[in-house]
Amino acid sequence: MENAPLSGPEKKDPESPGVQQAAAGSLVELTPTPGGLALVSPYHTHRVGDPLDLVALAEQVQKADEFIRANATNKLTVIAEQIQYLQEQARKVLEDAHRDADLHRVACNMVKKPGNIYYLYKRESGQQYFSIISPKEWGTSCPHDFLGAYKLQHDLSWTPYEDIEKQDAKISLMDKLLNQPVALPSCTEPTFQRLTN
């Protein structure tokens, strides 16, 4: 039973100080420098530790916890700001969609064409209607209350008159980007088409 696991209490062999004895056999000899190399520093393993080392270690752990908390807080703050921005954007999209739907239901005696500006008026009866005649063109003889002017966009959304210039600039910029040819950067590295003759 040479291969049986060793069990029982270990004892030091009085004849050889580096060998530990077990009840059923002997263990490998202990050497502080196996192969001539010290695996651990005897200074660090045999000296009595400074009690302030534990305090310094605790302070370091606490400081690390504070930095991790601050870092996580900063990242969560950025995410919260992004969520608020997206909520605001979603609210604006819903408001614009509701306004556009309401404007498409307004009475109109003509076919509305994208790219044109339409003027919204309100009769004494409360009915709202679109006209192509602006309040300036009516002058002082405008028969009904003017509510606002809107441009019908090509996606059938409505842009309020005060935002038309800004919206047209955005659309123009997007058109320029879409009309630019996609150019790949020129290759500066040599080509390796013919490596052999």
Q: Descriptors for this entry?
A:
single chain, 197 residues, alpha+beta, four-stranded antiparallel sheet, two-stranded antiparallel sheet, 4 helices, elongated
Sketch the topology as an H/E string, one letter per element.
EEHHEEHEEH
Poorly predicted runs: 1-11
How many separate helices?
Answer: 4
Q: Report Rg.
A: 42 Å
Terminal Cα span? 71 Å
Count of extended strands:
6
Q: Structural class of the secondary structure composition?
A: alpha+beta
Shape: elongated
Strand content: 5-15%
Largest sheet: 4 strands, antiparallel
Q: Percentage of helical residues?
A: 40-55%
Which strands sit side by side, in order, in the main sheet? 4-3-5-6
Mean pLDDT: 79
What does this entry look like structurally?
- With 197 residues, the chain is an alpha+beta fold.
- It is built from four helices and six strands.
- The model is unreliable at 1-11 (pLDDT under 50).
- The longest helix has 54 residues, at 51-104.
- Among the domains are: 49-105; 107-178, no CATH class.
- InterPro entries: DUF2452 (IPR019534).
- This is DUF2452 domain-containing protein.
